[in-house]
Amino acid sequence: MSDLVVNCRGVTRTYSDDAVPVHALRGVDFVVRSGEFVSLSGPSGSGKSTLLNIIGGLDRPTSGSVEVDGVDLGSLSESQLSDLRLRKMGFVFQAYNLVPVLSALENVEFIMQLQGVAAAERHERAERMLSELGIGDLLHRRPGELSGGQQQRVAIARAIVTNPVLLLADEPSANLDSATTEDLLQTLRHLNESHGVTIITATHDPMVMQIARRQVKLRDGAIVEDSAAEASAADA
Asked: What is the mean pLDDT of each run of 10 residues along the chain (236 residues)?
């Protein structure tokens, strides 16, 4: 079985802005293997968030193909895409996207409830994950009663409690101070190294770029640097 988690081939994304085409991605080839921790960086408008959204099935490419865990996203209907995201992907956004009326525990349980996991099991798994992320004493607090860093940990717990094939994080440190960002990065490093979670993050933050084991830089919709390719060339 292939260890490819993501396989993008010739991916383009063009938007029409007042009838003027905007080329967000220009023929991107991009492969991610199981267990990698990849940062996508580049200036605003470089295409990193667009690429992340296309990999996550939140947007569709204008042309080219995208496979996640061997499944061609282009062959799926919207409902099938939703199911794939539910079963195989975890998402962490800078806005956290927690449900304000639910407790931390209930927010983490929510995805498992959608998956049909029995109540006792999802409660146990959510509690264990929140404890592992250092907020086991805050289970019953709602998002408004948590700090930004604590909310981000709840969001991470929700994203990974289902054991997804892929974790996608869009600017995960954008709303955090440097100390909280350091805690977040240690959490992501632990998930990657100890649990083997495959992570792709789009970021402007040098701290996030440094902790990722592979750095990919985009400019004007194209990949201009890839540390994995550079390492392969150096070993050749």
From this structure: 87 85 94 96 93 95 96 95 93 88 96 93 94 92 93 90 91 81 85 90 90 95 87 55
CATH of the domain spanning 36-52+87-235, picked from 3.40.50.150, 3.40.1190.10, 3.40.50.300, 3.30.870.10: 3.40.50.300
Per-residue b or e along 136-146, where b marks 16 or more CB atoms closer than 10 Å to that residue's CB: eebbebbbeeb
Angle ∠(71,76,77) on CA atoms, nearest 5: 160
| Residue with tokens 């994950």, as numbered in its chain | 129
Residue 120, Cβ density class (10 Å: 0-12 exposed, 13-18 middle, ≥19 buried): exposed
Please enumerate in sequence order all residues whose Cβ is within 8 A of that of 167, keeping only pairs 6 or more positions apart, or say none.
Answer: 89, 90, 91, 92, 159, 160, 191, 197, 198, 199, 200
- Is pTM beyond 0.70? Reply is yes
To which H or E segment does residue 197 belong? none
